[in-house]
Write a structure and sequence with these properties.
With 231 residues, this protein is α/β, with parallel strands linked by helices. The protein has one domain: Decaprenyl diphosphate synthase-like (Undecaprenyl pyrophosphate synthetase), CATH 3.40.1180.10. The protein contains 7 helices and 6 strands, in the order βααβαβαβααββα. A 6-stranded parallel sheet has the order 3-4-2-1-5-6, with helices on both faces. The longest helix is centred in the first third of the chain and has 24 residues, at 65-88. The protein starts with 5 loop residues before the first strand and ends in an 8-residue tail after the last helix. The relative contact order is 0.20. It binds farnesyl diphosphate (FPP). Farnesyl diphosphate is lined by residues 11-16, 29, 32-33, 36, 53, 55-56, 60, 71, 74-75, 78, 127, 181, 206.
Length: 231
């Protein structure tokens, strides 16, 4: 099997999945968060080296206060249990996005988790949290401008330099991007990094996206004739 080195996933459909079961939206988020663990294990098992998930976008703050606080509670709990998950699956965890808007205890847990897992190398797992690609690029450009002004960097601005200022610095671009639940758009996720990425869309809602569905996506990727350097 031609396994992609890096899979990125837009987790979509928690709410619709819950509604289809006659349950509240937040139940969908709980089951969606559990499913992240399953897919981490599945990726580790099949030999994917990098997995990046879109957990919370810069636009997601516009949801109701109740929903945002339920999601933050879930993410906080997830980050705490992630130490064990990361140890069990040899995962190096990194969080992408503007973390300054998160509560300070979450920022502390993230820093500890990144430090605790930094030497793990079985699966490089990125969680995009308060992430938006335009925001990431804007932050990067501002930092480049600052470094030029202060004389820390000089010379031409290159693609490599821009890449090294992005949240994803050091991480190869995704080979395959999966979006669940029927929508077919990028929604401000990894716009720079997905320049040559293959896309896979499925109607399956995120909480129901299991290892079998992951294998279907990987098989579809394997069947494609990839043309680097072309169109
Ligand atoms: C997607 O479904 C939900 C989100 C993008 C927000 C919260 C994400 C999670 C709880 C997953 C947890 C992630 C980690 C890393 C633990 P939706 O609410 O957009 O569904 P809908 O489109 O059907 O309403």
């Amino acid at each position: 099997m031609n396994v992609p080195e890096h899979i990125a996933i837009i987790l979509d459909g928690n709410g619709r999945w819950a509604r289809s079961k006659g349950m509240p939206r937040n139940y969908g988020h709980t089951m969606g968060a559990k499913n992240v663990e399953n897919i981490c294990r599945a990726c580790h098992d099949i030999g994917v080296k990098y997995l990046t998930v879109y957990a919370f976008s810069t636009e997601n703050w516009k949801r109701s206060d109740d929903e945002v606080s339920a999601i933050m509670k879930l993410l906080r709990g997830y980050l705490r249990t992630c130490f064990k998950l990361a140890d069990d699956n040899d995962m190096c965890v990194r969080v992408l996005g503007d973390l300054t808007r998160l509560e300070s205890d979450m920022q502390t847990t993230i820093a500890r988790l990144e430090e605790h897992t930094k030497d793990h190398s079985g699966l490089y797992f990125q969680i995009a949290l308060n992430y938006g690609s335009r925001d990431e690029i804007t932050r990067a450009v501002n930092r480049i401008a600052e470094d030029i002004r202060s004389g820390t960097v000089s010379g031409e601005i290159t693609e490599e330099m821009i890449g090294s200022y992005l949240d994803t610095r050091g991480i190869p671009d995704p080979d395959l991007l999966i979006r669940t639940s029927g929508e077919e758009r990028l929604s401000n996720f990894l716009l720079w990094q997905c320049a040559y990425t293959e896309f896979y869309f499925t109607d399956v809602h995120w909480p129901a996206f299991d290892k079998e569905e992951l294998l279907k996506a990987v098989e579809s990727f394997g069947e494609r004739n990839r043309r680097y350097g072309g169109v």
